[in-house]
Amino acid sequence: MSDSAQTRPLGAPRARRLPRTRSHHGRTFDDPYEWLRDDDPAVLGHLQAENDWFDAATAGQEGLRASLVADISARTQQTDLSVPVRVVHDGPDGPLAYWYYGRTIEGQNYPVQVRLRTTAGPDELPPRPTDAPADEEVLLDMNQAAQGHDFFQVGLLQPSPDGHLLAWSEDTTGDERFTVHFRDLATGADLPDLVEDVAWGGVWAGNDTFVVSRCDDAWRPFQVLAHRLGTPTPQDRVVLTETDERFWLGVDSSRDRRWVVIGAASKDSSEYALLPADRPDSPPRVVTPRSPGIDYDVEVGPDRLWITHNATLGGEAAVDFAVATAPLEATGIADWTPVLRPSLGVRVLGVDAYATHQVISVRHGGQLDAYVVGADAWSVTGSAPAADQVPGRSLASVIAGDEPGAIVPERVLTVQAVSLPELDCTRVRAIYTSMLDPQTVVECDLDATGALAVAPAHVLRRTPVLDHPEHGPYDPAEYVQQRLWATAEDGTQVPLSVVHRRDVPLDGSAPALLYGYGAYEVSIDAEFSISRLSLLDRGFVVALAHVRGGGELGRSWYEQGRLMHKRNTFTDFIACAHRLVGAGFTSPHRLVAEGGSAGGLLMGAVANLAPESFAGILAEVPFVDPLTTILMPELPLTVTEWEEWGDPLTDPAVYDYMAGYSPYENVRAQAYPRILATSGLHDTRVSYVEPAKWVAALRHLATNDDADILLRVEMEAGHGGVSGRYAAWAERARELAWVITVVGAAGVDAEAATGASGA
Hints:
The chain is α+β, with helices and mostly antiparallel strands. It is built from 15 helices and 41 strands. It has a domain at 45-67 and 480-754: Alpha/Beta hydrolase fold, catalytic domain (Rossmann fold), CATH 3.40.50.1820. Strands 8, 9, 10, 11, 12, 13, 14 and 15 form an eight-stranded antiparallel β-sheet that branches. The longest helix is centred in the last third of the chain and has 19 residues, at 725-743.
């Protein structure tokens, strides 16, 4: 009888090794586990056997998991509401304003989306109605919508310009293909109209037409459709079809609702077009035709376009991006006028343009921040200033600087501007957080010129951290956050963000968790986490490795960790691990590494390169068979990924380079750290087959015990894991219980058995 047929597994499942080969550029690779990609009941049987073995191998962690869930539950304010956002609709007798927000209710998995009518002007601060007012309207109860589905997530919530309808979309499998519904808010009933196979976004063009981007068989948003309510979907107008498989299409709306903004983007170039919202049957007009290597973004202001770009204007190469303006009628780069010149080391991320001011989001020194500039301030400067001399004050200086009224004086924070839908905003909203500071939403006043006023910010909401039954109130003073630097293999200094309790001994005895990602110019910012407290209060050091391939230190930081420089990502992470050990934060036998998706590739690579540096590897939805995937253009995302990893189909040098770091292809006979890989059966981005093949290869070659190599596949989930907050808590508790067990944290044996919280 096979392992997959056992009800109580006697050992880890051993996948069959079938003769399959892959040949390119005269190189042949034996791939005995490729059969796990087949649509075959034997594959599902094997995945279920893996889950059964995971359950058996970790059965002793049940009490610890329960303790971790209890930690999260105790510290979370489960009945709560989000900060309301003001939306002004086009009413029959003039503007009609509502506050839109979400409520969470203890015992319910999903938010309830509601709105509240307001007659006050834009100067009004958002309300905080603890109990639902009598005139509060329920727009969408996600708990009701989720009934009957093992998985449920909402992709968009868009009220129509007149406020009578709500467009909302759902994904009930986890494959990120959404179905759009249209709800009559007067009756609460959905209209018969359905638009299927839609990507995440969508916008209104008037009150009777909704514009979406549709996915092809490879999950690429390749087509923009305009659906007119009341007409069959086969009659939807095709606004635009993208034939270049490297490009994805997306849609957005200008704040004044006059324009539908259509973006086509690859990994290193982009193109935008404008479609009049009142004439969705007209052809979209391209702002600037695409050009290789030119990446730009368009923000539609009241009277001009604001363009964030990396083009060379006036002889200056905008490596870290710059800002230009252009007329609404612009048709090419010749129409661009520089207003913020590039400054190396200051990564300009984008512009939000309002009636009286602009908000310029930037990243400098690894920190996220934003500057507020009055609409007239640009003309006062004479020539365009550089990005390190923005003619406005930064939100961080108001929130965490040395100015009078600063909320958190001289604290290093992640500060992010919030994009608001109202054109005539009279305040700027921002979110700040750190590894010590729960997420806090504030609004800052503007003066008559549209610049930030010299006044304390209004605190709208600070994420509550409730008292723990054993550890008591959360006190940031009991913890330490710091920035370290590791020296990479080539001498580059790599930043780490580190947090731990003040009473943790720094003599190498503490357990530690080191997280990394390092791809797509995604930055891993230092943010607060309630679940992380469960590690910190058990004596853990937790660190974030800001390795190359991410965007923490600008565009060049990303470029140094992609394509033929990808190996830097892996060696940077190993250097960060060595830095933690060398500084006495932990020891290799007490250190677990964690990463997901492209960060899972990082996990697989460091497991091969430096297995002695880690006690455990937690690889979530890991991209561990990259070469096989990138060689199959028919798979979701493959063609669009060539600009991130290279094209091994046509370039033998890329093939050899990727073959040299692919985790699956470099598994060898050695002792590995203990490994837990996770996946979702319906994951479109990283197929379950990648971790399944990787784990099979590890079991075949590694000298470890069976219980050291584990795979868990969520059979009703996609790339983002399970849906619903209580299931998500249980999933995170399962992972953290494994981490704690791997390093043998103090008290883990008793806690695993009883469920009592550890120290």
